[in-house]
Amino acid sequence: MNPALFQKFISDYTILKEVDFVPEISLYQASDITPIWQATENWLAEQNIEPPFWAFAWPEGKALARYIIDHPRFVKQKKVLDFAAGCGIAAIAAGKNNAQFIEVADIDPLAQQACASNAKVNHILLDKNSKNIVGLPCQWDLILCGDVCYETPMTRHIWPWLKKCAATGAQVIISWT
Q: Can you list the residues of the chain whose pLDDT is less than 50?
């Protein structure tokens, strides 16, 4: 992973703007879905990276963030994981509301960079920025998942782990439409 190259890519193809429905948070977001997909197709293939799901504040993440901002005690003094974080909006909301520990996890290195960049512009310090954590022992009080069960293979991969985390006492919240 080359953070400088990834940051340049994010800066070139997104703009920093407030999130609709959650104006307390600003994110680097694609201004239009088509240009980023077209402009990045070859580059992404060369880097072996997934499409730029991180470049959008998806409704599920916005719903989690809105809930956290409106109900700050939900995250206060908790160890929070934003799983399959994408842009990191849920983690940023947790940081703005006094979470004790904030970790983002995403297998896409561009998403990891986007989370770091988005946290920085929102004056949030991420405690950890992780890649593939599925299967690791649960270390969190609260696991936030924005629309991670949209494909059967992904769901089959993560569901047993999320259930195990819940069985050890973590609260697991999955938002999807």
A: none
